[in-house]
């Protein structure tokens, strides 16, 4: 698995069960966290696996209200602001499954406007986007990592996460049309 001239991102791990990995782009390498279920080729809603495959980057969301603390995400992708009324539907069977929805939402949906910094910047990946299949996983993003007191990046629910400074470096290196290739 190699990144091409568009500066694709390559995410690797040592084993399918590992929740830690390496993200490579433009000749640079960064530590990343993966899903609590490791990497999987057969993703299901709630299994905690980061889906293996090649995923297009289909959007960039960010918390514009925190601009004083963090600069606008660098790079060539046009960011869209996250609003307090934004969520992402994860309710299997709902017509808006794996889509941005207004909050509060009548079915299960993950709030994107969080008190912590995890979703201050979100790279939206095309996993289960088109065609969208109920139950095959939702809200697969790249975002800011949760970090333990000893500095270890903590597992996600199926996303790829990085330290904020590393995520900014990745964003600066991305080119339009880039992909995220996740595998062992």
Structure explained in plain terms:
The chain has about 180 residues and is mainly β. The protein has one domain: L,D-transpeptidase catalytic domain-like. The protein has one helix and 14 strands, in the order βββββββββββββαβ. The strands form three sheets. Strands 1, 2, 3, 6, 7, 11, 12, 13 and 14 form a nine-stranded mixed beta sheet that branches. The N and C termini lie close together (about 10 Å).
Brief description of this entry?
With 184 residues, this protein is mainly beta. The protein has a single domain, classed as L,D-transpeptidase catalytic domain-like. It has one helix at residues 164-173, and strands spanning 9-12, 20-25, 28-33, 39-40, 50-51, 53-62, 80-81, 86-89, 100-102, 109-111, 121-125, 141-144, 160-162, 179-183.
Q: Please write the CATH class name.
A: Mainly Beta
Please state roughly what percent of the residues sit in beta strands, choosing from under 5%, 5-15%, 15-25%, 25-35%, 35-45% or over 45%: 25-35%
- Note the main sheet: 9 strands, mixed
Determine Rg (CA atoms, Å): 15 Å
Helix-residue proportion: under 10%
State the separation between the terminal residues, measured CA to CA. 9 Å
CATH structural architecture: Beta Barrel
What CATH calls the topology is L,D-transpeptidase catalytic domain-like
Shape: globular
Structural class: mainly beta
Tally of individual helices: 1
Query: At the fourth CATH level, what is the homologous superfamily?
Result: L,D-transpeptidase catalytic domain-like
List low-confidence stretches.
none
């Amino acid at each position: 698995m190699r990144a091409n001239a568009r500066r694709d991102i390559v995410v690797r791990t040592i084993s399918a069960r590992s929740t830690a990995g390496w993200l490579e782009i433009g000749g640079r390498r960064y530590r990343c966290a993966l899903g609590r279920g490791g990497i999987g080729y057969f993703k299901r809603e709630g299994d905690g696996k980061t889906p293996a495959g090649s995923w297009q980057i289909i959007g960039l969301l960010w918390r514009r209200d925190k601009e004083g603390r963090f600069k606008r995400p660098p790079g060539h992708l046009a960011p869209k602001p996250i609003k307090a009324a934004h969520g992402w539907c994860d309710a299997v069977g709902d017509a808006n499954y794996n889509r941005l929805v207004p909050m509060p939402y009548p079915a299960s949906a993950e709030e994107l406007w969080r008190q912590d910094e995890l979703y201050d910047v979100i790279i939206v990946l095309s996993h289960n986007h088109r065609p969208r299949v109920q139950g095959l996983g939702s809200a697969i993003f790249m975002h800011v990592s949760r970090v333990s007191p000893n500095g270890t990046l903590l597992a996600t629910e199926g996303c790829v996460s990085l330290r904020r400074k590393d995520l900014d470096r990745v964003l600066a290196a991305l080119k339009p049309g880039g992909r995220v290739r996740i595998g062992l």
